[in-house]
Design brief:
The chain has 64 residues and is an alpha+beta fold. The protein has one domain: Alpha-Beta Plaits. It has two helices and four strands, in the order βαββαβ. The radius of gyration is 10 Å and the shape is globular. It starts with a strand and ends with a strand. The mean pLDDT is 98. It binds copper (II) ion.
Length: 64
Protein backbone atom coordinates (compact mmCIF):
# COMPACT_ATOMS: atom_id res chain seq x y z
CA UNK A 1 0.00 0.00 0.00
CA UNK A 2 1.09 3.57 -0.60
CA UNK A 3 0.31 6.23 1.99
CA UNK A 4 0.34 9.99 2.10
CA UNK A 5 1.79 11.16 5.43
CA UNK A 6 1.67 14.96 5.19
CA UNK A 7 3.11 15.66 8.67
CA UNK A 8 6.28 13.64 8.02
CA UNK A 9 8.85 16.40 7.57
CA UNK A 10 12.26 15.31 8.87
CA UNK A 11 14.48 12.36 9.74
CA UNK A 12 12.88 12.02 13.16
CA UNK A 13 9.44 11.74 11.58
CA UNK A 14 10.77 9.18 9.10
CA UNK A 15 12.19 7.06 11.94
CA UNK A 16 8.97 7.34 13.97
CA UNK A 17 6.83 6.31 10.99
CA UNK A 18 9.11 3.37 10.19
CA UNK A 19 9.10 2.23 13.84
CA UNK A 20 5.31 2.46 14.13
CA UNK A 21 4.91 0.16 11.14
CA UNK A 22 7.68 -2.26 12.14
CA UNK A 23 6.21 -2.50 15.65
CA UNK A 24 2.96 -3.56 14.00
CA UNK A 25 4.57 -6.05 11.59
CA UNK A 26 8.26 -6.79 12.10
CA UNK A 27 8.39 -8.33 8.61
CA UNK A 28 7.01 -5.25 6.90
CA UNK A 29 8.98 -3.60 4.11
CA UNK A 30 8.82 0.18 4.57
CA UNK A 31 10.12 2.67 2.02
CA UNK A 32 9.82 6.30 3.02
CA UNK A 33 9.92 9.11 0.47
CA UNK A 34 10.56 12.04 2.79
CA UNK A 35 10.45 14.87 0.20
CA UNK A 36 7.30 13.36 -1.28
CA UNK A 37 5.85 12.69 2.18
CA UNK A 38 4.74 9.24 1.12
CA UNK A 39 5.41 5.76 2.45
CA UNK A 40 5.28 2.54 0.47
CA UNK A 41 4.53 -0.40 2.75
CA UNK A 42 4.53 -4.11 1.99
CA UNK A 43 2.86 -5.86 4.91
CA UNK A 44 0.36 -8.53 5.80
CA UNK A 45 -1.20 -6.11 8.32
CA UNK A 46 -4.56 -4.59 7.44
CA UNK A 47 -4.60 -1.10 5.96
CA UNK A 48 -6.74 0.10 8.87
CA UNK A 49 -4.19 -1.25 11.37
CA UNK A 50 -1.34 0.58 9.64
CA UNK A 51 -3.34 3.83 9.48
CA UNK A 52 -4.24 3.50 13.17
CA UNK A 53 -0.63 2.82 14.17
CA UNK A 54 0.54 5.94 12.34
CA UNK A 55 -2.26 8.03 13.81
CA UNK A 56 -1.35 6.82 17.32
CA UNK A 57 2.22 7.95 16.65
CA UNK A 58 0.97 11.41 15.66
CA UNK A 59 1.09 11.02 11.90
CA UNK A 60 -2.35 10.92 10.33
CA UNK A 61 -2.09 9.13 6.98
CA UNK A 62 -4.32 8.48 4.01
CA UNK A 63 -4.10 5.94 1.21
CA UNK A 64 -2.31 7.50 -1.76
CU1 LIG B 1 10.12 15.38 11.91
Amino acid sequence: MKLNVPDMTCGHCKAAVEKAIIDLDSAADVRVDLPGRTVEVTTTAAESAVLNALLAEGYPATLA
